[in-house]
Design goal:
Elements (H helix, E strand, L loop, with lengths): L51 H15 L4 H23 L6 H29 L2 H13 L3 H17 L1
Length: 164
Amino acid sequence: MTNDPQGSYGSNPQGSYGSNPQGSYGSNPQGSYGAMPPGQPQPGRPVVGGNGMATAALVLGILALITSWTVIGGVFLGLLAVILGFLGLRKARRGLATGRGRAIAGIILGLLSIAIAVALIAVGVSILNSEEAQNLQDCLRDAGTNQSEVQQCEDEFRDQIEGS
């Protein structure tokens, strides 16, 4: 073999073949290999998007609160707001979506509207089951279709309620 002053065929005077003086191939001075800068989405992780369930919970919670004087508005819409709010909150906690605050607001408004509707239903039932309401029902049944007696029953009921 001949002695080549510049090295053998294919030799690299700066080191072995493929060596990188700044570090290994693909090294990242900010962190480990493949690390993304802060604020950048990580590969393989789903991109966090909006949370339609949280938004729907908030909208239904507002509608339920506005219509809480009705059974459908207060109870039904409130229940839907609570269900969608918990689903949206679970999605936000897993990091799959944003909207944690909207989900919590929807849950609170839904529960509040359910409570108002149930309280109003309870008040209505207690009024209908009161002695005054029973007297009115008896009076109206006895009055039949006679309009003057019906008016007299209503006046007596009003006087009993206002006098209580």
